Amino acid sequence: MRVAAYIILFFAAALFGGYYLGEYQHGLDETAQENLRGAITAFSFLTVYMLWFSFLYERKSFYCAIPAGIAWALMGDTLAIPFWMVTVSLILSLLTQFRSGLVWKSLLWAVAAYCYSDIYSFSPYLLFYGIAVAIVLIGWKVISIYDNLEEEPVSRKNDEKIQSSFSAPTEETVTSSYRPPADDMPALQPEPTYVQGPEPHIQSYYRPPRDPDIETPKVTPVVRKQASFNDLKSDDYAGILNLLDKKSAALPPALQTELDGLVRNGRLILQSMKDDPEDVKPGTAFLNRYLSAVIRVVEQSERQNLPENAPQSSPVLERCFTALQALHSAFVQQLAQLQENDQLKFDVEMSTLDSLLRTDGFK
């Protein structure tokens, strides 16, 4: 970025010097013209560069040098305006803010002054030199005043900080460390201390007599209500099958085997209805028709399996067993029928697919 700026400054200085080059070449031979061209080019570049540097880093000196440029424009010509502005700015910087970086700038100014001597003569401009000196003195004074104004708020802030941090000394109470000698103080006898022992714990076994007029409340055991088929909806097939599965444990082994098989096939029927929407209608009709019969048989079996009904329960349980066996067989056949429908449907789909493949020539 800096290299690009230097290149731009170089071309700007070349254009600036080349614009005024023709005014100084009249009546000169070729060698003199070549020397003059080099002097003007170097002079323009150095002065433009130093003026740009002064604008960036020495802004106060640059502002004070503007009157010098205006005065030279009125009394001299335009080509030397940057040189005299740089001269005044450099002198002010050396007087007000001297630093080591101004040394190399002074060397560049000396080179520019040498080029200036090849172009101009110093003697005809004595009036301007006096004006330049006056501008330097005035600028020096202005910069000094400006610097003082900048430092004053800072010093005032520092004074305020110092004052705010200052606290007046406070009177402190000084405690004397003097103690009278032991002989002057009467001996203090320690008071006897009484230690109270633990209080004895007295346990009473007294119980008030029982009032015969007050009856002891009877505790009624809470009996949980057993699950019943009446608590379930008629279309809650999964709930009915779960309750049948629970009641199976209270039945005789033969009935239990048939009921377990029936429940297992009933759950498979529900799964088939869930997997295939076409099985919903026949499966629902079957369950609505036969689950109620299963419930009646199971309830009758529970009643007959009680101990008090043992003598006359044998024929009834046999009939219940026969009914459960038939119902179990019906559930097995219904499940097979639903699965057969699924198989037929699959066979039809495969046949259709085979015909489609043959039609398209893939088989």
Automatic annotation (TrEMBL):
Query: Which region ranges are annotated with the description Disordered?
Result: 157-183
User: What is this protein's name?
Assistant: Uncharacterized protein
Q: Which residues cross the membrane?
A: 6-24, 36-57, 69-95, 102-120, 126-146
- Entry keyword annotation includes Transmembrane: yes
Biased-composition ranges for Polar residues?
163-178
Alphabetical keyword list: Membrane, Transmembrane, Transmembrane helix
